[in-house]
Amino acid sequence: MQRDGRERAVAWALAITQNTPLAPAQREQQLLNQFVAGELSLDAVITLLDEGTEDQKSLPL
Prior knowledge:
The chain has 3 helices and no strands. It is mostly helical.
């Protein structure tokens, strides 16, 4: 996927999640920015998000 396609896909996702609980947090937005720039593949973004979720599960309540 070319950069313009990545930009459109991310813009669409951000538009439909704006002002909802699904809107990206800062770390998620950073990963999306890296995806748009071509620094990360979508698979890498998903893996990094999953790893962050696992880290949060291990935190004490």
